[in-house]
Amino acid sequence: MTEEKKPSLIARVRGVLRGPVLIGVIAALIAIGLSVFGMVRNPEGTPLNVRSLLLVIVLAGGSWGLIAWAIATAAVEAGKDE
C-alpha cells in the first residue's frame, strides 16, 4: 500500500493561479498594500475604518488587478499568433 501525498496548499494555489491570473492577483495585492499604507500614513486625508478598507480592496485592488490581468492576457494572446 502506498500513500499518496496530498499536494500542499501552496501547490494547489499555484496550480490555479498561473499566467495572467497570477499577475493580476500580484498587482492587486501590491495596490491594496500601497493604498492601506497611504491611509495609515495620512489619516487626515482618509479616515481609517472598515468601510474605507473595503473600498480600498474593491477599488484599488480590483482595478489594478483587472488592468494587469488584461494586459498580461493580451500579451499571451499576441505571443500565440506567431
Structure, described:
74% of the residues lie in helices and 0% in strands. By secondary structure, the protein is mainly alpha-helical. The protein has one domain. The longest helix has 31 residues, at 50-80. It is flat, with a radius of gyration of 18 Å. The model has no long low-confidence stretch (mean pLDDT 86).
Provide a quick synopsis of the model.
The protein is mainly alpha-helical and 82 residues long.
How many strands appear in the DSSP assignment? Answer: 0
The largest β sheet comes out as:
none
User: What structural class should be given to the helix and strand makeup?
Assistant: mainly alpha
> What is the count of helical runs?
3
Q: How large is the share of residues in beta strands? A: under 5%
Question: What is the mean pLDDT?
Answer: 86
How many angstroms separate the termini?
48 Å
N-to-C SSE series? HHH
Count the domains.
1
Give the uncertain stretches in residue-range form.
Answer: none
Helix content: over 70%
State Rg.
Answer: 18 Å
Quick tags:
74% helix; mainly alpha; 82 residues
Write the layout of secondary structure elements.
Blueprint: H1 9-16, H2 20-41, H3 50-80
Helix pairs in contact: 2-3
